[in-house]
Amino acid sequence: MRRRIQSNTGSGKKKLGALITLFVVIGIVIILVGLLLVNSKKQLIERPYGIFKTLTIREAFENAFGTVTVQYTADGVKISASDQANRYVAQITSSGMKVFLNGQPYENSDEMYRLNIYGRALYNLVLLNAPTGYESFEPKSPINYLKDVTYDYIQDNKEYIKIIGIDPENRDIEIWYSISRDNEKFTVTVEKVIIDKKELSQVEEKLFLARVYKKNVETDLIEVVQNSSLEKYDNIPLKDVFSKLANVKWTIKDEQEKIVELNASDFQDINKTITLGFKIGDDGFSRIEYMYSDGKPVDNEGITAYVDVLYKEFGFTPILTLESEVSEYKEKILNSTVPYSSPQITFSEFFSQYLKELSWEYERVSEGLKYTVSALTKDSQPFEISFLCKDGKVYLSEIKLNASVTDFSKLKDILAGGSISDTTLTSTTRLIDIVKKSKLVTTSPVINNEKAFSTILTDMNWTEDQAEKTVILKGSGKYGTQKSNFRFIFYVGDLNKVFIRESYINNMQMIDEVQNYIISKAFNIPSLSNDIIELVKNSILNEKTYMQILGKNGWSIDKTFDRVFFDNGKLKVFFSVEPNGDVKPVQLIYNNDNLSNRILDILQELEMGRNIVDIVNAYQKQTDLAQKKTTESTSSANQQTQPIQNVQNTQVTSRTLQSAETKIDNSKTNGTESEKAQIPNNKTTNFTEQKTANKLDLVKKSKLKHESKFLNNERAFNTYLYDPNWTYDTITDEVILTGKSHYNNKFVEMKFVFEIKTPSTVILKELFIDGAKADATTTEKVLLRIFFPDKKETLETTTNNGTLKDTRDETEILQDTNQDTDSNEPGGGTL
Q1: What is the pTM of this model?
Q2: Cβ atoms of residues 226 and 214 within 8 Å
Q3: Which of 609, 616, 693, 811 shows the smallest number of beta carbons within 10 Å?
């Protein structure tokens, strides 16, 4: 009899289904928790960092570099990207951000993020979005128009990107952009334009930007001209004068030449018609190109006379900018006789003998030119006397005593009080004030000394020596390529005449030519810089002057780096001038090839009368031959590669990251006892001068990088360093080179220590930067900069097409001797 077995299948299925459901729920919970964790970490890069509010961290990386990699970690998130030279990694946690550059933590993460990530991102946005008013034009126009372009990020209530460069006229340019956003839309606005440290007016800015962005401004030309002024009548818009004429009509006469024509009735004869052609200049001033009266041309003298009468008719007088005109009236005042004086004396005698603490001021008024002399009487009462000058004559206008207008006869009381002792001193504050408010160059558009020097100095400090009647101004500024300390000593002479007695840069006294050049920059008087150009032209190389070697014409000055240069279209030579007048050729370019590594050789060849073409061709053949020999020696050396610890005069391969220690005697030994025996004893302290000279010469004439275009170590290092100083340490048997150079955006003290391994082998043992020992990576990078200056390494410089320059050299960093030669990871070789 069969029994029916009860099936448990249904119950089993239910249990299995419940188990699966449980796993699914657990899986979903895990996924949800994971998503929540990832999302919370994602938020770390989806928000702005610190004070940098316009872009999130992710947006900053994407706009700076394009492709980015995001990696979530246990305590936060990493975001990384690369440019053509470096790899940047930002590690963001709830406690902040840490930035790594090429795998190494950067000391100041905020500063690295500010300029090289966030600042670069905003800079790229400026190059992608044309500014307001120029939306239909090429956004990259500024970097195509300017040369030597860099940028800076500035935060001052708003965020700015400042594009810096040099225009075709060799002027220093700054274009300040602000960036705002509305969701995903960015708006770029030009906030201001500065040329040679002078901020442009709206009219000047409009014309400059039109030239940069190639915008046709003719549609706005009439408005631009109407709001401009004549140079003689600065700050008086043309429309405030000429639009007051009857029957005025403004039209565009010549769009290409930017000439606007005015037709109106003559204010002197309503029945006559006048026609004037105004042309706007790059400096923002308009000039009158022509004038007709009832169709008849008016010559230049007639135009000037008519304009002067017209402006005077409407109550305007010309601005006085010529020193001769100002001085002429002042001289007439000083030579005039003082009323009520008996015996008669001049105002020059009155001011010097009866008053103290004088200061002169003049201003333009409707009647002419008004001079006011402020001073103290013998009993220290405030005294003020004013003169009105017009039509070549001087009139006594007003006298004030204790701020109250008084009768001219008050002069009798002052004269009766007797003269003041010559030993009377001016007050402490008054002496400094006199220097600040006076103007060394009266023809300068800068208002006074204080304003002028503030354009070239920061951290200004004014002190005085009353006994010497001097005022000392100290401040920081840039001369050449480095930040320097400036000191100017002013002397206050008779009638408060101020002039510079002495001036110094880094405690080195300036010669007149350098001082005049600095003054020309401060007061915006280009003609004063001619002296320093003449100094260089007449300096002697060996037997001939640079003018005799290079030519009489083609000389100018690069105000960015304070370097005089010669340029004939093909050959360009730059010279630095020390404050004491020492002239040094520092850069030579021929047909756009940088030949600075042979600058002295080439100049000496030119001095001997050789042709530049022959010199360069011979040099190129020599370079090609040297490169060929280097390739052959490298190939041979690679067959016997030996790891080393020191950077030495050898070819470094980029594939194997190994190095062969190439010796002149072609010895194949590596650190044998016989070789070590040739090394001089480090404890020897009594070397002769001849032996010292031989050691120095051996290091100088050897060459650490055979593939370099430089002739030897001496030429390479002396070109790279300022004030290079070679010495020999008899105790350590080492050659030491010290000097200054530009490194990581600042000037630093560098110290190179060379060791002579054998009589034929020189190595660089150590490098110190500002006293700190450099690692192998840094040392190799510095050497590449020294021996291959054409391969510039910078995070900020762009080419004219807007892309960042490729700054990576093919030569890799030397491998640590303990590492496997097949490893792809860079070593930290010991120096």
Answers
A1: 0.36
A2: no
A3: 609
